[in-house]
Amino acid sequence: MEHCKPLYGNLASLYYDIREEYAPGDEVAFYARFIQPGQQVLEAMSGSGRLQLPLLQAGCQVIGVDNSPHMLARCRQRAAQLKLSPILHEQSLEQLDLGAKYHLCIIAMGSFQLIADRKSALYALQNIRAHLYNGGTLLLDIFTPHDTGDVTPAVTVACINAHEYIRCTTRYFFYAAEHRVDALCSYEYVIDGQLHEREYELMQFRWYDGQELTQLLDEAGFDFVRVHEQSFRSAGLSQIVQAQARAMHH
Questions:
Q1: Mean pLDDT throughout 117-124?
Q2: DSSP characters over the chain
Q3: Whole-model pTM?
Q4: Is the pLDDT of residue 4 over 50?
Q5: Structure confidence at residue 209 (pLDDT)
Q6: How far is residue 169 from each of residues 106, 154, 206, 247, measured CA to CA in Å?
Q7: Confidence of residue 222 (pLDDT cuts 50, 70, 90)
Q8: CATH number for the 10-146+208-245 domain, one of 3.40.630.30, 3.40.50.150, 3.20.20.190, 3.40.710.10?
């Protein structure tokens, strides 16, 4: 098999945009109610602007950070079509250093769970904490998969136009004892029935039970506040965890 490229390469980014498009109004409204006028907000793992751009349209000041140059390029293209000029940073959360502090950080749609290694996840949360004011809020959308056993490979198609589409074939490998699933994805760009380009990627997800996540947040300098039962995902159990940045003493 060809070497797997970094997450969200060119085809994956295009496929994601076509399938996901923009966050629906109820999701945008949910996050917007945590944002006070004039506050700068950080959306971590912001991708191609699925949530960031609608929030900007709603008048919120949302800065995006993501480690995929392809996703950020897509965000800039989509923003230009909407006549928006988002502030974007290309960084991973494990090495996050923006030189600024925020009142709120959002990680939407289970993206945080793409950091499958616990130590890396802790570094990411510690860096987010360092970018929040004391008492600042973290909103973390998390999910639990429906099944944790063998499943048939999933095939989905994203149509670009009448002649072009991207076909995604995903094979899942579950490691239930480790709360991890590996998703091997093949993206095929087809023009007039002919395969034009193929791209592979391996996505690893980790899921948490309540105690695991509370402990991780505690180690990173957060106090658990509450769980919001709102779900904006079509598959898997989903909820949004709200945590508060503890005071840091120097």
A1: 95
A2: -PPPPSSS-HHHHHHHHHHH-S--HHHHHHHHTT--TT-EEEEET-TTSTTHHHHHHTT-EEEEEES-HHHHHHHHHHHHHTT----EEE--GGG---S--EEEEEE-TTGGGG--SHHHHHHHHHHHHHTEEEEEEEEEEEEE-S--S--PPEEEEEESSSSEEEEEEEEEEEEGGGTEEEEEEEEEEEETTEEEEEEEEEEEEE---HHHHHHHHHHHTEEEEEEE-----SSSEEEEEEEEEPPP--
A3: 0.89
A4: no
A5: 83
A6: 29, 6, 20, 46
A7: very high
A8: 3.40.50.150
Tell me what the mean pLDDT of segment 132-146 comes to. 93
With 0-12 / 13-18 / 19 or more C-beta atoms within 10 angstroms meaning exposed / middle / buried, residue 85 is exposed
**CA–CA gap between residue 56 and residue 64 (Å, rounded):** 11
Domain positions in the chain: 10-146+208-245, 154-205
Helix 210-220, helix 118-130: angle, nearest 10: 50
* C-alpha–C-alpha distance, residues 142 and 196, integer Å: 35
User: In this predicted model, which residue has the larger pLDDT, 195 or 5?
Assistant: 195
